[in-house]
Specification:
It contains 16 helices and 21 strands. By secondary structure, it is an alpha/beta fold. It has a domain of 204 residues: FAD/NAD(P)-binding domain. α3 packs across α4, α7 runs antiparallel to α8 and α11 runs antiparallel to α12.
């Protein structure tokens, strides 16, 4: 039996982030990963000769720059290449592009509506205000509003100061924004269907909300919080696929002596005298640590693991009630050439190198959500398509391309029963049929495809119901409510057990903030000698 300072369960990017910080602080760390490869949902896999797929997460922006600097991830091989815009490609030859160049962006929106072009800066300013408000909170531990401990009081004072700087009008506007729907927010700014549809995509990605569901405006904000090379809200590709992020984090951890074991599925949390002291693998092998750190989602951490001393049934009920609703699917496609999207001059439009959406209107998205509510994948889905090989030639052989297709909405369980291979194939055909309308001849370019339903994502990657955020980003599950009140400071149901996954503040996406914050709390407990 080998004793460690910390044993991390799951080599997803948050688990690796926590491990890297703990190892950097001089602790002896072991990471245990169920699968044969590290990364969780941030992985790169060669499933067809010569092609590298980002099989789950597919684009980089939310990864905190503080983590990149402190762990020196570029030195460990991470390179993020920003792309230059996005396209909302319709099937009638029309499209709306977004560009990094402000003047070009204004001209593009003006093609549809002069009023919407004039409104765009007001919309962008409103989003930027919210980003500036929340950014200081991303790497802080949520204070307990019921506590009188000095640290919690200081945290509450800091939050009060952040909100206090807004002024009365902006404070009311912020409270309204965080609770309103994205559809209502966009309706207040824009008049044109395609403009609103284009802007609304980020409000529904990964969430079981429609564009007119209260709270979806915050999801929009969550996707605007990232940055690439200091450009707020920018997005980019990790060279070599999203697995490059996980490899860099693992390298940073291993540089300080961290050990990583794959094919090591945890079965039991070993509890002695009320304290979590180790874990047992399904193979029977045991690992002991002064801190046991779970990168699993909250529900799996509480109810998916066996505990040698049973947990409180009331807590297990809260974990079961924690909202983790799958709503997304994914296709990864190897192409024999570059698709010709209707109306797009691929030689002159740099936005083709970024997101290619199909999102014609808010009504279209709401109807797609209606299908999900009644247990069917969207018959006319929202698509977020990327072709990383346009920027990163390592992803596909010369002259060929890799396409990532994120799909909304896809339920974890269908109205007529569980997912089957035949249903998964039918779902994939729905997506390909729509892309064929966007880019005639697309089907003939397909060399290989991987189709992933929420069932596949859950069973292969370990994300409950295929939910990419490890829990809904709704107001009742944010800050000191994430995952539940009393457990929002990364400490779990037993002393010595910690949570570091996206079920904790500040939530999902390839951000690294939950792992960073959890590591800080663990190190504080070591310093206070709470982990003997």
């Amino acid at each position: 039996m080998e004793q460690f300072d910390a044993v991390v369960l799951g080599a997803g990017h948050n688990g690796l982030t926590a491990a890297a910080y703990l190892a950097r602080a001089g602790l002896k760390v072991m990471v245990l990963e169920r699968r044969h490869l590290i990364g969780g949902a941030a992985v790169s896999e060669e499933l067809f000769p010569g092609f590298t797929y980002s099989t789950c997460s597919y684009v980089c922006s939310l990864l905190r720059p503080e983590i990149m600097r402190e762990l020196d991830l570029p030195r460990h091989g991470l390179q993020v290449v920003p792309y230059e815009g996005s396209l909302n490609v319709l099937t009638n030859g029309e499209y709306l592009a977004s560009y990094n160049n402000h003047d070009r962006q204004m001209r593009e929106i003006r093609r549809f509506s002069k009023r919407d072009a004039e409104a765009y800066d007001r919309f962008a300013l409103a989003i930027q205000r919210q980003c500036r408000l929340i950014k200081p909170m991303l790497l802080m531990t949520p204070p307990d509003p019921t506590s009188l401990k000095p640290r919690d009081l200081r945290g509450l004072a800091k939050m009060a100061g952040i909100f206090g700087e807004l002024g009365e009008e902006q404070l009311y506007e912020t409270m309204r924004f965080w609770t309103m729907s994205c559809g209502d927010f966009l309706d207040e700014h824009f008049e044109t269907d395609v403009v609103k549809g284009h802007m609304a995509g980020s409000s529904i990605i990964g969430t079981a909300l429609g564009p007119y569901s209260p709270g979806s405006a915050y999801v929009l904000l969550h996707h605007y919080m990232g940055e690439v090379d200091g450009s707020i809200g920018a997005w980019g590709y990790a060279r070599g696929g999203m697995g490059a992020i996980s490899k860099a984090l693992a390298s940073a951890a291993q540089a300080h002596g961290c050990q990583i074991r794959t094919n090591a599925e945890v079965a039991h949390v070993i509890v002695k005298e009320g304290r979590a002291v180790g874990v047992a693998l399904k193979s029977g092998e045991e690992f002991y640590g002064r801190a046991i750190v779970s990168n699993l989602d909250f529900r799996r951490s509480i109810n998916g693991l066996e505990w040698t001393e049973p947990l409180d049934p009331a807590l297990k009920k809260k974990a079961a009630d924690f909202k983790i609703r799958g709503s997304s699917g994914k296709l990864n496609i190897a192409l024999d050439g570059l698709p010709n999207f209707v109306g797009i001059d691929r030689a002159r439009n740099p936005a083709l190198c970024g997101d290619i959406h199909y999102s014609p209107s808010l009504d279209y998205l709401e109807r797609a959500y209606d299908d999900w509510k009644y247990g069917h994948w969207s018959r006319k889905p929202y698509l977020d398509i990327l072709i990383p090989s346009l920027i990163d030639p390592t992803m596909a052989p010369e002259g060929k391309h890799y396409m990532s297709v994120f799909v909304q909405y896809v339920p974890p369980t269908l109205h007529d029963g569980p997912w089957t291979p035949a249903k998964r194939d039918a779902f994939g055909e729905t997506v390909i049929d729509l892309i064929e309308q966007m880019a005639p001849g697309f089907r003939n370019l397909i060399l290989h495809k991987q189709v992933r339903s929420p069932w596949d994502i859950e069973n292969e990657v370990g994300l409950t119901e295929g939910n990419i955020f490890q829990g809904e980003l709704t107001l009742d599950q944010l800050m000191f409510n994430r995952p539940i009140p009393g457990m929002a400071q990364y400490r779990g149901p037993r002393p010595g057990f910690y949570l570091c996954g996206s079920s904790t503040h500040p939530g999902g996406g390839v951000m690294g903030a939950p792992g960073h914050n959890a590591a800080r709390e663990i190190l504080l407990d070591f310093k206070a000698r709470k982990l003997a």
